[in-house]
Design a protein that fits this description.
Strand order of the largest sheet: 1-2-4-5-6-3
Distance between the termini: 38 Å
Order of helices and strands: HEEHHEEEE
Radius of gyration: 16 Å
Oligomer: single chain
Largest sheet: 6 strands, antiparallel
Strand content: 25-35%
Shape: globular
């Protein structure tokens, strides 16, 4: 990916990555959370000091709980999917060109743990910012941390820590 400066990432190229994620590659290519990408836009993406991507979204009614706030499960799904985009961005932009880690992490790996702390309610139809910071990427394990904030007052609504594991290829699931 090209960058407009040493630190920034071309947001159009990150949007192209999101467009790729939105559009199924086949009729059978449907997955939980795919509709999320229709509700978000990229606010900022940086390569240094660490790869970070901030998204903004208006919380749709479909993500609500009974008291008209965002459901905690919806928040976890958002963190899971968007932190994976941050890992893909790292693989495409920040990993050394000749590193085998690029090929290993371009598919973002799979979740090992996803820890979410809910701090304040996020009302349906309000806007939120979701920041993802790639803390570390290794041969087999990666860590992304971030938070969901109110974009106008900066109040933290939730925080997360997502540990990922790399897979070589994408084997079919087996029991």
């Amino acid at each position: 990916m090209s960058s407009s400066s040493e630190d920034s990432v071309n947001l159009e190229e990150v949007q192209n990555l999101l467009t790729y994620l939105i559009n199924p590659r086949s009729e059978d290519d449907h997955y939980h959370g795919a509709d999320l990408y229709k509700h978000i836009r990229i606010v900022q993406a940086r390569l240094r000091p660490a790869v970070s991507v901030t998204f903004r979204m208006k919380i749709p009614q479909d993500y609500s709980n009974r008291v008209n706030n965002m459901h905690g499960g919806a928040q976890a799904m958002i963190f899971d999917n968007l932190s994976s985009v941050a890992i893909c961005l790292w693989a495409m932009s920040a990993a050394p060109q000749d590193s085998p880690l690029r090929d290993i992490w371009v598919n973002s790996g799979v979740s090992r743990t996803l820890n979410v702390s809910y701090v304040r309610p996020a009302p349906v139809e309000s806007e939120v910012d979701i920041e993802n910071v790639v803390v570390n990427v290794g041969k087999r394990l990666a860590l992304v941390r971030g938070e969901m904030r109110h974009p106008e007052n900066g109040k933290v609504l939730a925080t997360f820590e997502h540990h990922k594991a790399a897979l070589k290829g994408w084997p079919k699931a087996q029991l």
